[in-house]
Design brief:
178 residues; six-stranded parallel sheet; 6 helices; 34% helix; globular
Length: 178
């Protein structure tokens, strides 16, 4: 059973207080995300990293402040979360990574037996990715100490929705233990 790691939207605009759409506590996740990404590559586990990639006048900016505009520093992933070979980056313009046709095609090619998901924001892009992956019929685990919500109460509701749909919760140490 091949595991695939899915690192959702861990970008500067979301992870750091100076970012355009900061997720509270995001900066504290960076070491955990870096650890998971390194673990994946070091152990031959496919790693998919999703990233927001918006145009300057993106329709999403009617509802959200401009963020992750292509070509800006905020759109980048922190250097410590980039691991090079073995990491596939999928750009998206909407919350749901499944709106990028390359994502389902990549999943089909990888034929995962399990997905491990982490990133930001729990109640938005992380939840959509995790629920979409569950719909593939493959087990999905969400790494609770490598996610953060915009609003804690919405994050709790997202975890409840995820587990009610059949997902499981785990931690970085459980995933990376030998």
């Amino acid at each position: 059973m091949e595991t695939v790691f899915v690192d959702v939207d861990t970008q500067i605009d979301f992870l750091y207080p100076a970012g355009a759409l900061y997720v509270p506590g995001g900066e504290r996740l960076v070491p955990a995300i870096a650890r998971l990404n390194r673990f994946a590559v070091e152990n031959g586990i496919p790693l998919i990293s999703t990233t927001d990639a918006h145009s300057e006048n993106d329709p999403e900016f009617r509802d959200w402040p401009p963020h992750c505009v292509t070509g800006t520093t905020g759109q980048l992933k922190p250097a410590e979360t980039l691991v090079g070979a073995g990491q596939t980056i999928i750009e998206k313009q909407e919350f749901d990574v499944f709106t990028n046709a390359a994502f389902p095609a990549l999943l089909e090619r990888l034929q995962a037996g399990r997905y491990v998901v982490y990133g930001v924001a729990t109640e938005y892009c992380v939840l959509r990715a995790a629920l979409g992956l569950l719909r593939t019929g493959v087990p999905v685990s969400l790494v609770t100490d490598a996610i953060a919500a915009v609003k804690p109460e919405d994050g709790v509701r997202a975890l409840d929705e995820f587990t009610a749909a059949g997902g499981t919760l785990t931690t970085v140490s459980k995933i990376t233990q030998p």
